Amino acid sequence: MSDWLSQAPDAARAYLKDARLDEVECLIADLSGIARGKAMPASKFARQAQFYLPNSIFYQTITGGWSEETAADGFTEPDMTLVPDFSTASAAPWTADWTLQVIHDAFGKDGTPVPYAPRNVLKRVVELYAAQGWVPIVAPEMEFYLVARNVDPAQEIKAMTGRSGRPAAARQAYSVSAVDEFGPVIDDIYDFAEAQGFEIDGITQEGGAGQLEINLRHGNPIRLADEIFYFKRLIREAALRHDCFATFMAKPIAGEPGSAMHIHHSVLSKETGQNIFTGAGDAETPEFLHFIGGLQKYLPAATVLFAPYVNSFRRYVKDHAAPINLEWGRDNRTTAIRVPISDPQARRVENRIAGMDCNPYLGIAASLACGYLGMVESIEPKAEFTGDAYDAEEDLPRGMYAALDEFAAANSLRNVLGEDFCMVYAGVKAAEYDEFLQVISPWEREHLLLSV
Length: 452
Hints:
globular; Ubiquitin-like (UB roll); Creatine Kinase, Chain A, domain 2; alpha+beta; single chain; about 35% helix; 14 strands
């Protein structure tokens, strides 16, 4: 591995230039999308081809607790072998020394991929597409808030103060001057992204106070999930430089819109390289409609992957820029499944269900899985919806238990994602919900303490 830098992307090598690499951060995403791993001197990293972590990192809840639903040998905490993917080597430009990050893949003792490692779950789904002669393409959109520093969980989250000295205002969607309020933070986001070799398609102000959206160029699902995994970290680091927080909570501020991770999908033929959603005479193909049909049928069961926390379900509020049902429509942002305006060869389907708090590997994997099942099962969608979809019936699970029940019953979806993964994931989510139920909220104290 001594020459591993020769396999690193151009951006990583350009970042180092004539500098001496000091440290390598060996990273893997857990079920929540948190970066786990080890940091080590670059000289040590160059001397070893792999390292080890216990598989229990995938049984841990967002609070640091543990799920009892583990693999057969879960309680013995056996080690996984983590192997670097050098194509993911990326700068960590906010550190004081010269540091690169490298994403790793997890394997068991027998050399097979660990089935509940999120990156492996996404790879599994992409391989199913490949077996059909298909190449999935995604383009994610990332929404997040820049908020005032909040070090007391008992205090409500407030909008950050912009360069004008005034708190960020709501309902300023697409305002350039609103984006300028956060100019210093955005400048660092651009600089960090450039150092890491990431191409930003655009940054816009969204409808919430201090809410921004970053669009990424379309491409390979695994590469884009890696970028979102990295982006969450770089955006947080950029915010901390300017005395504010970046949050990817689905609903951080009451009364404000939630933050989504909209996912645009198209599928290419491996043989021809053409978009299979477009046929002769630029007509829409059966695969296009079946992809939509698969989303409509399986999104409820996949909701627990798109909305992984109690807070996630607060986003699905009527007339608050998030879907409440499974209707589809053309250029209609009230529907869960939107077909944007595009040239025929760029025909795509946008899934608007996923929250920005989801693990990017699992959110993209679940969305692709739903569309895949639609195509292989030839599922016909409901009729196109016209008008305001907020007036239609609600279709999504209304809470964590309901979402887990839908997930447990969806055998086809579980087969695509992998039963071992689904068992461990559901166990972690149930454990997190049990932890949440032990906390008494201000609403309960206000309305129940002296009234019931």
